[in-house]
Backbone:
């Protein structure tokens, strides 16, 4: 029954797009409808990823989910760059990393309960996040007492982005080879979609998610004004959660079905991919529109570093449990409060 309802609610996505294009509904209505429409799309991405993982293993399955799930965030960021909303771009990207590490992973651990995670893969993702955070300090510190959007900082950010992309390619190649070697095909009959069908479903759901997320973000400004929130808070919390709808749904669905390793891989792979692939990609692609510097605020750097270390401590033993999930959610609430109190730059 629930599956039929979710499949039927996928029709909300084209309805939201049509309402946005052909009618004059209020931005508040668009915001609510778009948020609701993202739920079944997130479920579809999680469903397709789980079926794909039956053919590839949890490591590559998590990589696929992170790749498809982060596409809306890339589109949202580039749209914000074209509108000159640099603080919104940076806030949404750092908020995305933190929400994946603490909110998505925490919710997945609560949904899945006791189990094991791939400790090596988890620590590798966290190590990538620490490397990225250290490199982000270069343009960030220079922007704390000067112009955070200066051309020199944009140039430095481009150089750092190239380094991070090289690291991403190398680590991804190693990680996928490792997961391929570890994955053992099961002799059991599994009622799974074919790999081709799973990838097609992922692609369609990602495109639809990007369109709906764009509409939702376009209506966020009016919502934020009515709620009395800063642009930074809206970007770092609300936009980040919206952009991570796929990871939320995917991780929670597979964790609830007992696949803790895959759920943790989804959250951690997505966080690492945002830091070492998505953020550099946005910085480099922004030169086609308007150069973007990766000059993050002190609260953003502290959130990135603190969340990474905190998640590492929680997962150090390589085990999952509901209390660990609660600890991660509590950490996310602390970050949300810090983002709220910091206001705009």
Residues:
């Amino acid at each position: 029954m629930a599956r039929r309802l979710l499949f039927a609610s996928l029709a909300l996505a084209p309805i939201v797009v049509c309402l946005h294009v052909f009618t004059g509904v209020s931005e508040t209505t668009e915001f609510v409808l778009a948020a609701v429409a993202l739920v079944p799309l997130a479920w579809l991405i999680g469903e397709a990823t789980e079926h794909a993982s039956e053919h590839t293993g949890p490591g590559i399955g998590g990589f696929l989910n992170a790749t498809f799930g982060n596409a809306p965030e890339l589109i949202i960021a580039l749209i914000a760059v074209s509108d000159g909303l640099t603080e919104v771009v940076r806030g949404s990207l750092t908020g995305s990393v933190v929400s994946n590490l603490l909110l998505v992973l925490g919710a997945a651990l609560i949904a899945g309960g006791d189990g094991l995670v791939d400790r090596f893969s988890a620590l590798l993702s966290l190590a990538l996040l620490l490397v990225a955070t250290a490199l982000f300090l270069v343009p960030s510190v220079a922007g704390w007492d000067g112009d955070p959007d200066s051309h020199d900082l944009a140039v430095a950010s481009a150089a750092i982005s190239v380094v991070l992309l090289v690291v991403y390619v190398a680590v991804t190649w190693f990680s996928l080879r490792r997961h391929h070697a570890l994955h053992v095909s099961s002799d059991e009959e599994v009622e799974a979609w074919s790999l081709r069908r799973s990838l097609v479903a992922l692609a369609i759901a990602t495109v639809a998610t990007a369109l709906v997320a764009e509409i939702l973000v376009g209506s966020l400004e009016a919502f934020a004004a009515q709620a009395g929130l800063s642009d930074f808070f809206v970007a770092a919390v609300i936009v980040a959660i919206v952009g991570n709808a796929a990871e939320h749904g995917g991780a929670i669905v597979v964790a609830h079905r007992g696949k803790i390793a895959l759920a943790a891989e989804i959250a951690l792979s997505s966080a690492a991919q945002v830091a070492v692939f998505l953020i550099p990609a946005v910085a480099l692609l922004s030169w086609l529109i308007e150069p973007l510097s990766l000059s993050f605020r002190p609260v953003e750097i502290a959130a990135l570093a603190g969340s990474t270390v905190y998640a590492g401590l929680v997962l150090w033993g390589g085990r999952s449990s509901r209390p660990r999930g609660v600890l991660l959610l509590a950490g996310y609430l602390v970050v949300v409060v810090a983002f709220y109190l910091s206001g705009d730059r």
The domain at 2-182+195-342 is CATH 1.20.1420.30 (A middle domain of Talin 1). Residues 183-190 have pLDDT under 50 and may be disordered. The chain has one domain: 2-182+195-342.
